[in-house]
Structure of THAP-type domain-containing protein:
Amino acid sequence: MVLVHCVFDKCGNQRKKNGKISFFSFPKEPDLLQKWINFINTHNPTKLSEQALDRERMKICHMHFEKNQVATKSNSDRVLVRNSVPRCPPGIV
């Protein structure tokens, strides 16, 4: 099992450590991906580039999205609303 972690340095959420946290994969659409990377680089000491992105391990946890950006399915799984961009930096959530 691959250890999935939130890309924010100050967050520390990991899939193995906490089953109550949902993790979202980086978008494949280039413009949306760039918005995610820009937000991360604004709030993270470790800067991220598209080339350095490990899509298998690096995710963003639901704690960095506004509540209206995350929907809950009938089976309690969380999904992102289309075109959502993270808005909640670590330490503010």
Q: What stands out?
A: The longest strand covers residues 58-61. The radius of gyration is 13 Å. Residues 45 and 71 are 29 Å apart (CA to CA).
